[in-house]
Amino acid sequence: xxxxxxxxxxxxxxxxxxxxxxxxxxxxxxxxxxxxxxxxxxxxxxxxxxxxxxxxxxxxxxxxxxxxxxxxxxxxxxxxxxxxxxxxxxxxxxxxxxxxxxxxxxxxxxxxxxxxxxxxxxxxxxxxxxxxxxxxxxxxxxxxxxxxxxxxxxxxxxxxxxxxxxxxxxxxxx
Length: 174
What we know:
This protein is an alpha/beta fold. It is built from 5 helices and 10 strands, in the order βαββαββαβββαβαβ. Helix content is 22%, strand content 22%. Strands 1, 3, 4, 5, 6, 7, 8 and 10 form an 8-stranded mixed β-sheet that branches. The chain is globular, with a radius of gyration of 14 Å. InterPro entries: YfiR/HmsC-like.
């Protein structure tokens, strides 16, 4: 298991730690751990155009999105958070955080990101088969994530390959 101080991340720094794939946390701090991990993932993502603020959009019945504004600490830039209705176009979003919803609804939200510079993170797709780039697995005492290489490769975003070292690859890889 890796234990990393995610708040020490300096985006773009070659010696900066990457978000841990298995982060242990105290009970009741899941939302903060999710925010740190989301910010860490964002810090290792490059958008085609530089941006001053990370615009996070949340859709679905997300259980761990209440503290996503804290992602700013590990993302290396201010973050704003707004809710989107299920099926709403992710206009003005840099990061789409998907909570639980029906598979068809989730797929529609993911499809709406195709061709756009939007990082997608699913909160409740532990097998990472719904099309999001990153999928969180939050349990009572730990947080891990999987990556969907296919979704990342089809995106206009560039994700630092060091993230792959600590993530579990979707489809039975690492």
